[in-house]
Amino acid sequence: MARLRRLGAGRMADAAKAFGLSTTRRAALAAIVVCALAFTIAVPLRTYLSQRAAVVEQEQRLAELKAEVARLEQRREELHDPAQVEAEARRRLRYVMPGETPYMVQFPEDTTRDGSDDEDRSPEPKPWYEMMWEDVTKG
What pTM does this model have? Predict the structure, then answer.
């Protein structure tokens, strides 16, 4: 076994002599080869990792969409019931059955018909022609 090692080492030394490479040059050549291999592997590895992150993100999006589909299917099943449709029409569209008298209760804090406060809205400015007409008639 030791003889084989000496033969292998001797052949390497003979090859190095044939190419005229010193120990320093061989080390530099080995470093260049290692760097080339590292750069060759780095780009595909970065691409793989970024694609893997994109796949995870898309799987999360898929799970969210499946939950949304399930919720919408449940809502569709609820709306197959005529009583539910009637309740939705009464609540959202303020429909009443023939013969019923509708009452709209307006509480003191409600200042508008749609239930939103005037504080949230800024007063709409008058159109320019109305402001100009007021200036001309007052003047």
Answer: 0.42
- The residue with greater pLDDT, 102 or 18, is 102
User: Distance between alpha carbon 85 and the CA centroid of its chain, in Å?
Assistant: 35
Residue 24: C-alpha distances to residues 6, 16, 20, 81, 102 (Å): 21, 11, 11, 86, 99
Can you tell me the distance from the alpha carbon of 95 to that of 75, in angstroms, rounded to the nearest whole number?
A: 21
Phi, psi for 33 (deg, rounded to 5): -65, -45
Token pair 């052949």: residue: 11
**CB of 89 closer than 8 Å to CB of 95:** yes
> φ and ψ at 104, to 5 degrees?
-110, 115
pLDDT, tens digit, 9 for 90 and up, residues 112-135: 555 555 555 667 888 888 888 888
